[in-house]
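Hi all, posting the design record for the shared folder.

TITLE: backbone redesign
STEP: 1 of 1
STRUCTURE INPUT:
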């Protein structure tokens, strides 16, 4: 037992065992820890796109891809008047769902 204690005191005074060994353990242990976190990322990223049946099961109504086209959406946006608009601030959580303009009488 005395031999172990004297050896421990000898090595505990060395800089490599005081600073180098904990640093190496942290680096090696950290790489294994990061591996686990990265595995979570790839495990949950393999979820596919939401199908129409799954969306309807959750109460969402999706349009068919043929119904929505880039040209159709462009026609909708082209008809908007983007030059004349008014900036209206939304309600804050403490304002109970009313807009400040409605309180002021605008």
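Okay, here is what came back for every position:
SEQUENCE:
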């Amino acid at each position: 037992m005395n031999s172990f204690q004297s050896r421990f005191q000898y090595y505990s005074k060395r800089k490599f065992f005081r600073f180098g060994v904990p640093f190496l353990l942290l680096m090696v242990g950290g790489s294994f820890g990061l591996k686990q976190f990265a595995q979570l990322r790839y495990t949950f990223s393999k979820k596919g796109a939401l199908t129409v049946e799954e969306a309807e099961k959750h109460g969402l109504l999706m349009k068919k891809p043929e119904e929505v086209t880039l040209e159709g959406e462009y026609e909708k946006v082209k008809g908007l008047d983007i030059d004349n608009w008014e900036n209206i601030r939304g309600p804050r959580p403490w304002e109970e769902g009313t807009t400040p303009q409605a309180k002021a009488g605008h």
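COMMENT: The mean pLDDT is 82.
Let me know if anyone wants the other runs.
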